[in-house]
Amino acid sequence: MANFEAVMKTTRLRKPLIGISCCTRQYGIFGMPNHGASDTYVRAVDDVIRGVPILMPANGDKADIESLVDRLDGIILTGSRSNVHPSLYGGPPHAEGTWEDPKRDAYTLPLIRAALDQGVPLLAICRGFQELNVALGGSLYQRLQDIPGRIDHSTPSQPCSRVRQGKAHPLRIAQGSWLHRIAGATEISVNSLHNQGIDELAPGLVAEGIAPDGTIEAVRVIATATGPIAGFAIGVQWHPEYDFETDAVSRRIFVEFRDAVTAYTAHLAAAD
């Protein structure tokens, strides 16, 4: 893997541009529509990846996917309170009151496919993890807590962030997997702040981590409809951006993403 400092000195002489997916949200007393992403992702890019965070607006079919993929050196798909729309994976309508974000769906799914085809490093987190599965042909459970035999994976209703974001359950890691290599263990503990989860695993995805109730919570992309991929493309259902400053595995996920970005920018520079 390319050395970060050496590549910075000898290739593009600039920090890599890291796209961070935004959601549409209402802010202020008049509920004006805005595009937003949590500061935790920005801090991970600033402090670990050492790149320039670029917030990608959820502008639906107006998003210029080709320009984003051509100009970005890495992409982080973020978590969100909204759910991927069931029409995109053949699911039943959401229950009344479920948050949806069709403009986010409309740009993230084609962005995922384009990024994978071009080899842009991709790290998909929580909703982004679910988007990755749907973009490649998989399906989702809408509310894991309503399924017999599944645990409640949703966010605890606690005002204390340490409780909401704390470790919630163990994760069994597949022997010899990417996650096994970076964790150095076959079991870790993760936080849990989601309702949706993978039902049918998409073709081209390999499960790397599974919760005690059988819910898939870590995947690696090995192929798309156009063929095998060679680039970095990882999805995790939990939130490593919440505790990368204190948790070694969470930090290692972002370090590995950074190394993939470094290698990608070195490859682009060599091709110029």
Output the number of helix runs.
8
Q: In what range is the share of β-strand residues? A: 15-25%
CATH level-3 fold name: Rossmann fold
Shape: globular
Distance between the termini: 20 Å
Largest sheet: 9 strands, mixed
Going across the biggest sheet, name each strand in turn: 4-1-5-6-15-12-11-8-9
Instruction: Give me the CATH superfamily.
Output: Class I glutamine amidotransferase (GATase) domain
Short synopsis of the structure:
The chain is an alpha/beta fold.
Q: Care to describe what's here?
A:
It contains 8 helices and 15 strands. With 272 residues, it is an alpha/beta fold. It has a 9-stranded mixed beta sheet with strand order 4-1-5-6-15-12-11-8-9, sandwiched between helices. The protein has a two-stranded antiparallel ribbon with strand order 2-3. The protein has a single domain, classed as Class I glutamine amidotransferase (GATase) domain (Rossmann fold, 3-Layer(aba) Sandwich), CATH 3.40.50.
